[in-house]
Amino acid sequence: MTPAKESEIIEITDRDTDWNRFFKNRYKKELDEISREYPYKRSLYINYHDIESFGKTGIQLADELLENPGKVIGDIRDAIRTHRLIKTRKKEEQPDINIRFTNLPRKIAIREIRSDHIGKFISVEGILRKTTEVRPRITLAVFRCPSGHRTVKAQSYGSFVEPDGCQADGCTQKKLELIPRFSRFVDSQKLRIQESPEGLRGGEQPQTIDLDVTDDICGIVAPGDRIVVNGILRSIQRNSYGSKSTIFDIYIECNSIEVAEKEFEEVNISEEDEKEIISLSQDPNIYRKIAHSIAPTIYGVDDVKDAISLQLFGGIAKEMPDGSRLRGDIHVLLIGDPGIAKSQMLRYVVRLSPRAIYTSGQSTTSAGLTATAVKDEFGDGRWTLEAGALVLADMGVACVDEMDKMDKHDRSALHEAMEQQSISIAKAGITATLKSRCALLGAANPKYGRFDDFAPIGDQIDMPASLLSRFDLIFVLADKPEHERDLAIAEHILKAHSVGELIAQHTREPIPGIDEDYITEQLKPVTPEIDPVLFRKYVAYAKRNCFPRLKDEARDALITYYMKLRDLADANKPVPVTARQLEAIVRLAEASARIRLSSEIEKTDAERVITIIDTCLRQVAYDPSSGTFDIDILATGVSKSKRDLIRTIKQSIRDIADENGRAHKPDIIELVRQQGFDRDEVERQIAAMLRSGEAMEPKLNIIKLI
């Protein structure tokens, strides 16, 4: 055996002494706490900054941790044992504790992980996409041969490895039996995180990496959580058709998990950014600037852009003393004819929001939208909990296109996610509640492709009333020919195309007589007034720091508006608005104040959102038959005037049948018409009742209720 060099002995001794000094100086309290609570508390969390700031020695120790984490963790355990830094109740017991590190200086993007990082200590942040159940994993397997000898085999990550035979001297037994009772197990869990969407450039797909989690940090996070993972990058060889491949997969041997607690913590806002944001918030034209920064290539639809700007900033989520939660996120639905640029609007919002997910209802299932429990290869036979789009968009915006193309069952999954802002899973013994605290921006087409001016709006929206009622704002975007407006749209579209052609041509070969100033001038109509990067930071800053409260003047204005609409109703008139709309108005007013970074909601905020609410109500909750607002069109899908008509038709059928033995259709129509209803409406409603199965026509013009 080659004797160790003196320098090596000194280094080992020095490291032992260095860690001993560090712990006694910085972590005595934490070690004493583990001494008292071991084995219930068996992890020592060390802040990387504390090591780095421990003089010159600390800098060396910190560098060693990043370069050779396995050795450093071993050194720390040796120092704790050698110097008896943890004293348990049983003096002879050697405590086996986990050494965990937090607050590493630099985070590596998942897509930037390379072979150079293998074996190094790294820090990665992202969204938790998948989690398996927590199950025991064997780390030290004890085997027994038929002769009674025991053989110990350490197990690493991956496949179970059995010894070739009994290791006892002189024993030739090959058949060994595992003895679980004497083997050592540890809790284990497998996680998969993906890159946060806010860190991606347009068109990039988020990349993922798997995590191997053990012991007391198992089961502490759920899909959808934003986490920072600190650990050692490991590699494992692939097997291809039974032979070993030259390609290796990578995973992180998780040392610690930090859950992001602050909203939009990952958005980096510098002092210069903050000054610019505060300056923008004080601009008297800030609302116009923000609206014009949303999809500037789309002409008009200013009321929709105003609503989306409020949605991006959002209201304030409130935790009540009784434990209930009032959502602050604003849900917006755009229902419009084809070619109105709804999808383009949604995709632009994904670019602007600090955190957003885009999905299409045509190709999305309820599991893809919410969450699901599955048994797949990832979990090695275990059940895996996988987050859907609404969970991944937690604390952001979920943009769902083509909502009218979704299956009814898939759409029903949105109910809990939109109102309670949580998603409950109960499957295969897994019971979990995931967070979906996101605003929903949806887009849909009318039931029959285009809006019909002569049919009620409610009949043309192919979505259940229970879902529609959960949207704070619903906009109807009808493509109606209008000379002045159409001319302006045509000029705007052609302007955008000509500017694009000019840029494409100029980048390849300079055009004589055209300089950068000319191009900049031509770009103005389609250039956002606030740069998208700064816009994202503005939204993140407002949601992180601004929590306005209602001033008395604003409160009075909201109450006056609400009561004015409620007072329109009586026993024989429809209900114009409910408390659900009042809550929506409050959320919108909070968002309006947030845009100004104001700590108070002014009367002007209330007036601004009342105008937007009025616009929406006139589009989707106005009953032309009664000439009033009727929120039942959204809440139940049927207006009060229509309910009255159906009730009158049914009663007329009964009355005529009681008198004549059967009810003839012309008699029914005439009797209902005499009670003040339009003949065409009556005929349409009878036809609808026959289609829906509420009534039948056993013989020509004979109507019978079912």
Structure explained in plain terms:
Helices cover 39% and strands 23% of the residues. With 706 residues, the chain is α/β, with parallel strands linked by helices. Among the domains are: 6-102, mini-chromosome maintenance (MCM) complex, chain A, domain 1 (2-Layer Sandwich); 110-223 and 238-254, OB fold (Dihydrolipoamide Acetyltransferase, E2P), CATH 2.40.50; 640-705, Winged helix-like DNA-binding domain superfamily/Winged helix DNA-binding domain (Arc Repressor Mutant, subunit A), CATH 1.10.10.10. The strands form 8 sheets. It has a 5-stranded mixed beta barrel with strand order 3-7-8-10-9. Strands 14-17-20-13-21 form a 5-stranded parallel β-sheet. A hairpin with a 5-residue loop joins strand 4 and strand 5 (150-154). Helix 1 packs across helix 5 (69-82), helix 8 (302-313) packs across helix 20 (579-595) and helix 23 packs across helix 24 (665-673). The protein is globular and about 105 Å long. It starts with 5 loop residues before the first helix and ends with a strand.
